[in-house]
């Protein structure tokens, strides 16, 4: 069962209850609850309007290893950066994973921060590079999600699967939270998260003892051999997919 956090019960202009407001590095972050009638989840949002190396808000009482985290965000302004990020498996303000979308660079990148030093992680199946290019228009609401399963992290942006990363630096459960960078002014709404006792994907076997199947090039069952573009999905045994005119059963 997913936990959903909104800020409608918090006082406007103040930090939200049940969160630890902190940062990685130096500066003066400012996280406050503000009213925004455009918010997809009721009307109050959490807004970061200060300036720090990496402003960070950690949700008190969370201790998640596997599951998912999802947030709606709107990048409002920022001349140095215009970023919104999700944090998981955080030990403290200097050690965690973060995936962030950037409205200045138009990309989504996943990092690990170890002892306060951030480094990007390679995408599964690709050496080098820097995340994935995708449009992130400012002053619009977007959805950012990460599914966490063991050492495998799957990133989705606005409902579109983007990429997966594998890393085992932080293997234990930790806090989840929200993140920005530098002078980013960003609004967050409708944070959702959940624990899973068994991972959806990754290096561990499915409970049926059969491995997951990665579908990279699906073809039309009617005989059209042209592959569909932008298909990179992980399916479990017994799952049925309905994709365009095709139905695929993993059995």
Short description:
The chain is mostly beta strands and 251 residues long. Helices cover 0% and strands 51% of the residues. It has 2 domains: 193 residues, Jelly Rolls (Sandwich), CATH 2.60.120; 37 residues, no CATH class.
- Mean pLDDT rating: 83
The poorly predicted ranges are 198-251
Total domains: 2
Count every beta strand, where a strand is a DSSP E run of 2 or more residues.
20
Q: What does this protein look like?
A:
This protein is an all-beta fold and 251 residues long. The chain folds into two domains: 3-195, Exo-inulinase, domain 1 (Jelly Rolls); 213-249, no CATH class. It contains no helices and 20 strands. It has strands at 3-5, 19-28, 31-35, 44-48, 51-59, 67-77, 83-92, 95-102, 107-114, 117-120, 132-133, 141-149, 152-157, 160-166, 175-179, 185-195, 213-215, 233-235, 240-243, 246-249. The strands form four sheets. Strands 1, 3, 4, 6, 12, 13, 14 and 16 form an eight-stranded antiparallel sheet that branches. Strands 2, 5, 7, 8, 9, 10, 11 and 15 form an eight-stranded antiparallel sheet that branches. Mean pLDDT is 83; it is low at 198-251.
């Amino acid at each position: 069962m997913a936990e959903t956090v909104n800020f409608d019960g918090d006082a406007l202009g103040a930090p939200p209850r049940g969160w630890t407001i902190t940062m990685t590095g130096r500066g003066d972050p400012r996280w406050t609850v503000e009213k925004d009638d455009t918010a997809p989840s009721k009307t109050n949002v959490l807004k970061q309007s200060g300036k720090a190396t990496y402003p960070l808000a950690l949700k008190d009482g969370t201790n998640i290893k596997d599951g998912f985290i999802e947030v709606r965000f709107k990048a409002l302004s920022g001349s140095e950066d215009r970023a919104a990020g999700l944090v998981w498996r955080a030990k403290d303000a200097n050690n965690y994973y973060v995936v962030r979308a950037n409205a200045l660079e138009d990309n989504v990148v996943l990092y690990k921060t170890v002892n306060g030093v951030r480094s990007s992680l390679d995408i599964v199946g690709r050496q080098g590079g820097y995340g994935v290019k995708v449009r992130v228009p400012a002053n619009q609401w977007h959805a950012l999600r990460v599914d966490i399963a063991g050492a495998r992290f799957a990133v989705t942006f606005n409902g579109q699967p983007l990429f997966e990363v594998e890393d085992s630096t932080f293997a234990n459960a930790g806090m989840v939270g929200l993140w920005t960078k530098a002078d980013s002014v960003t609004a967050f709404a409708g944070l959702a998260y959940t624990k899973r006792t068994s991972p959806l994907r990754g290096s561990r076997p499915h409970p049926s003892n059969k491995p997951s199947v990665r579908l990279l090039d699906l073809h039309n069952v009617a005989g059209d051999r042209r592959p569909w573009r932008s298909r990179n999905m992980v399916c479990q045994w017994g799952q049925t997919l309905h994709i365009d005119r095709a139905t695929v059963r993993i059995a």
